[in-house]
Design a protein that fits this description.
Structural class: alpha+beta
CATH architecture of the domain at 75-135: Beta Barrel
Distance between the termini: 59 Å
Helix content: 10-25%
Mean pLDDT: 84
Shape: elongated
Low-confidence stretches: none
Number of helices: 2
Order of helices and strands: HHEEEEEEE
Radius of gyration: 29 Å
Oligomer: single chain
Largest sheet: 4 strands, antiparallel
Length: about 140
């Protein structure tokens, strides 16, 4: 690892350590400050041991995804810009039918971006530069 000045900190440390050794100097650890932070002793524990100590082990298991019942939105707006890159280019037009997972926005040519997919089955109600509205036909 190099610092911004082009030095290798581990090599600098090794040079300093060897120079101190050659000079016959030794560090007196009895005068070193003692870390008296309230949580110091817990910082040395593995995360699982710490979770057990706090009584959190029952909550560490993986929980599966549970859908929220039969909720299905009647309309969604999918933004074409969902990241720092270039906004996606719409590949659908008003009136097109789409299914969940269909590509509705493509990465622009020679651009850095991401594809955008339909989140529900339905009909494209509106396409603009900022996003696409899909209606499911449910009220």
């Amino acid at each position: 690892m190099w610092c911004i000045f082009g030095l290798a900190p581990n090599k600098v440390y090794a040079l300093v350590k060897s120079a101190i050794g050659r000079a016959g100097l030794k560090f007196d650890f009895s005068k070193a400050p003692v870390n008296e932070h309230a949580l110091f002793e817990h910082r040395k524990l593995p995360a699982l041991t710490y979770a057990r100590k706090l009584g959190l082990e029952p909550y560490l298991g993986h929980t599966g995804f549970e859908p929220l019942g039969s909720f299905m939105p009647s309309r969604v707006r999918v933004p074409l810009k969902q990241h720092l890159g270039a906004p996606a280019v719409a590949v659908v037009k008003t009136g097109d039918r789409v299914k969940t997972g269909d590509v509705i926005g493509e990465i622009p040519e020679k651009g850095l971006g991401a594809r955008v997919h339909a989140s529900i089955d339905g009909r494209v109600e509106m396409v603009s530069e900022s996003g696409i509205v899909i209606g499911s036909g449910r009220s």
